Amino acid sequence: MKEGALSGGILDPGIMQAMEVTFNRIRAATYLCHLLLPPLLETKGSMIIVSSVAATTPIYGGGASLSYYMCDAAFDMLSKTLACEFGSKGVRVNTVNPGMVDTPSNFTLLDYEVAKKYVEEGAQKSAIGKIIPPEDVAKSIAFLASSASAFITGHSLVVDGGLIYK
Length: 166
Description:
Elements lengths: L14 H29 L2 E5 L15 H21 L5 E7 L13 H14 L8 H12 L10 E4 L7
Parallel strand pairs: 1-2, 2-3
Helix pairs in contact: 1-2
């Protein structure tokens, strides 16, 4: 595992270091929402937080990725809480939860061979049989930002090719 990776089970000696990374990610997302909400209130806009399917179920290695799962679950709850608080003021807040997306970032936290194995396994685990093209995640975000989703708020849209069901 590379330095700063979001991993480790509860008994891992590096769990508290992983939790610091997690808390920093949550803090950054919260602060970004704090900065973005005033203009969204003026424009009655929509906010989409990108989390991951890991927020819904611990599918990648069980407890070995505890802090990663906790972080993404926090993003989902941030979205739901903001949706409740600002929905009556005309601001919708949703989350997109992609599974494994075909991007170079798959190889930034893990050594290349380990990452390659995860990517291949992720494709096999998906009901569709492949990892997600980034364009599919972008289309789901565009949908949630559009007027076509005017009555959707506080929702976590899973875009995983059926990964959590297979």
